[in-house]
Write a structure and sequence with these properties.
- This is Carbamoyl phosphate synthase small chain.
- This protein is an alpha/beta fold and 359 residues long.
- The protein folds into 2 domains: 143 residues, Glucose Oxidase, domain 1; 202 residues, Class I glutamine amidotransferase (GATase) domain (Rossmann fold, 3-Layer(aba) Sandwich), CATH 3.40.50.
- It has 10 helices and 19 strands.
- A 10-stranded mixed sheet has the order 10-12-11-13-14-19-18-17-15-16, sandwiched between helices.
- α8 packs across α9.
- The protein is globular.
């Protein structure tokens, strides 16, 4: 097996074994603590421009199947694992993880002490990194010079509107890089879904006559999103019940005068406990975000903290004081799980029923 190297921007170099694509790549190195769900994570558009490292020691043991995709074309820049399964067994699988990465030109590296690298990131913060087949004199300089594509949302989101017709409530979904699991949750509730691109205007939203609006997850820094999108959110939240998820939560906050900041190493994985400050309910949640809403910035807004992370008290959800609008930083759609917080979709449905739109 060919050697491959993981090079961090602080000069640390780890030697491992190549799998997947043969190409080299640069991105921001982040880690996920999930013990399963590697397929959902790799195909999550929120990992666009990022090299995804899994802390679970064995990855790939059940292969890849057609049903657990969260997008059709993954956009992460690489996959780092301790051990990639040599034998994969599952009645639904269509190919191995290595074959899937090769098919989508994503490089992987195995035989890395991922828990040691994770401790390094937890101490020094998320950092730029490269997966290379040969360490050269210019490698470190190229890593340090790399910057995240500010247009990552445009790569991850749809460019054209499309629909999933049904007979229930009509939901206008603004796609910033959505996970299919969001659409699955709406489908379970018989919602008539119209997906709009991230460039959608107020007029575009009004033209589909929605009963509610959902802002999806997506990659990158929320402050890179154009002001026109924030203006759209400010107007739409006054006309329609609104739910923001992940990036949608952050944009909902920015549109209402709050600020966001980059976290030291982010929240990624499926075991984050979150408390509902209204009901006292505690749920384990699926999370994938490297930015958060600054709690102190909420004082001058019409937003209240609805949900918070128990461990570090990060703002995990907001509720508007005047309009039927709220948000969740985590994924209540939670693919592959846990599904504790999917009740938020039901609360969104109730909000729509209690606040019918005049058409």
């Amino acid at each position: 097996m060919a050697a491959r190297y993981l090079v961090l921007e602080d000069g640390t170099i780890y030697t491992g074994t190549a799998f997947g694509s043969e190409r080299e790549s640069i991105g921001e190195l982040v880690f996920s603590t999930g013990m399963s769900g590697y397929q959902q994570s790799i195909t999550d558009q929120s990992y666009n421009n990022e090299i995804l490292m899994f802390t679970n020691p064995l990855i790939g043991n059940y292969g890849v199947n057609r049903d657990n995709l969260e997008s059709q074309v993954p956009t992460c820049q690489g996959v780092v694992v301790r051990e990639v399964a040599r034998r994969t067994t599952n009645w639904r699988m269509t190919m191995s993880l290595a074959d899937y990465l090769a098919q989508h030109d994503i490089p992987g590296i195995s035989e890395i002490d991922t828990r040691a690298v994770t401790r390094h990131i937890r101490q020094f913060g998320a950092m730029k990194a490269a997966l290379v087949n040969d360490v050269q004199e210019t490698t470190l300089a190229r890593v340090r010079a790399w910057s995240r594509d500010p247009q990552a949302i445009n790569e991850s989101a749809t460019h054209n509107a499309y629909s999933a017709p049904a007979t229930g409530r009509r939901i206008a979904v603004i796609d910033f890089g959505l996970k299919y699991s969001i659409l699955r949750e709406l489908s379970k509730r018989n919602c008539d879904v119209v997906v709009l691109p991230p460039t959608a205007t107020v007029q575009d939203v009004e033209a589909v006559y929605p009963d509610g609006v959902l802002l999806t997850n997506g990659p990158g820094d929320p402050t890179a999103v154009p002001e026109r999108t924030l203006n759209m959110i400010r107007t739409v939240e006054q006309k329609y019940p609104l739910l923001g998820i992940c990036m949608g939560h952050q944009l909902f906050a920015l549109a209402n005068g709050a600020t966001t900041t980059k976290m030291k190493f982010g929240h990624r994985g499926f075991n984050h406990p979150v408390r509902n400050l209204v009901t006292g309910r505690i749920d384990f949640t699926s999370q994938n975000h490297g930015y958060m809403v600054e709690r102190d910035s909420l004082a001058a807004t019409d937003l209240d903290v609805l949900l918070e992370e128990i461990n570090d008290h990060c703002v995990e959800g907001l509720q508007h004081q005047q309009f039927p609008a709220f948000s969740a930083q985590f994924h209540p759609d939670a693919a592959p799980g846990p599904h504790d917080a999917d009740y938020l979709f039901d609360e969104f449905m109730d909000l729509i029923d209690q606040n019918p739109v005049q058409k």
